[in-house]
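Researcher: We plan to redesign the surface later, but first we want a full-length starting point. Tokens attached.
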């Protein structure tokens, strides 16, 4: 059985197109963002749903968002406000009891590139951007 990925493309007029593609088709275009952006105009957001064989569930990965792209290119510092019950207790949000944390945006390499939370400007990497129940603002 070939592994296929479900893709949800949201356009600037808020219309949605759903696709299903195999890994080979995506890899032929280098990555999923190239695959979609070469075929469609006015793309606002690209979400890829990947199947996890262990949990038997699909998980959503955000690979492109207009707002995040603007912040990524400008190297902006982002502040995320966490929903109650999802506080960040790693120590980086120590002054706010985990309700807010700050980071830079990065992007992973590979054929399904996701956004990363880079904690310091001189870090080599970071964890995947957690989206659920969070609001994002730019810190100037």
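Model: Full-length starting sequence:
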């Amino acid at each position: 059985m070939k592994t296929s990925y479900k893709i949800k493309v949201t356009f600037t007029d808020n219309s949605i197109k759903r696709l299903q593609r195999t890994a080979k088709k995506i890899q032929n275009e280098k990555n999923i963002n190239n695959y979609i952006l070469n075929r469609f105009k006015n793309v606002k957001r690209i979400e890829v749903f990947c199947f996890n064989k262990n949990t038997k569930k699909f998980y959503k990965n955000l690979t492109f968002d207009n707002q995040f792209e603007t912040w990524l290119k400008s190297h902006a510092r982002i502040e995320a406000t966490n929903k109650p019950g999802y506080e960040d207790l790693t120590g980086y949000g120590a002054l706010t009891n985990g309700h807010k944390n700050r980071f830079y945006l990065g992007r992973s390499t590979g054929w399904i590139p996701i956004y990363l939370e880079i904690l310091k400007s001189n870090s080599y990497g970071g964890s995947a951007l957690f989206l659920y129940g969070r609001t994002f603002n730019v810190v100037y």
